[in-house]
Structure formats: C-alpha cells, structure tokens
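Lab notebook, bench 4. The sequencing result for the construct came back, and we need a structural model before the next group meeting so we can plan mutations. Quick request posted to the team channel:

Model the 3D structure of this chain.
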Amino acid sequence: MDVIPFQHTLPYERQFEDIYVSSCPFCEEEQVLTHMKPRDYKQAIEGVKTILIMPCCRSKITILEADDDYFWADEPLRK
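Done. Here's the predicted structure in token form:
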C-alpha cells in the first residue's frame, strides 16, 4: 500500500467511547463530537475503510485507517 500523505490526516481524541475532532476540516466548527460507533472505530483501527459523516456540516470523510492519534483519509484534510 502506498504511503498516505500527512495532509490527509485528521487528529482526534477519544474519551471513553466518544470520538472528538478538534476542528472540522470543512466548516471549521470547534470540538465536534462525532457519531462514530465503537464498531466503526474498531474497523478503522483494523484498517477497514470507514465513512465518517461530520455532524456539524454533513460532510463525508472516508477513513482508510486510523491510529491512536489520527484518522488517515483518502483526501486532503489539512492545508
């Protein structure tokens, strides 16, 4: 698999089973609580392609994989 560029990452924080994104890459809303289910999070950690719909603006992120700090997407999420 090709290396995913760092511009395609989205930092997140996990508190218990809640996933927070510090800033939405589309509408720039701060401290967004996502509606990501624990099974979807587990799939992302395992490298299964997962869709995340941002609740603030309904934009879609396709997560290719995840680690403890970042979601790695198929499109640039940073400038």
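The mean pLDDT is 95.
Will bring this to the meeting.
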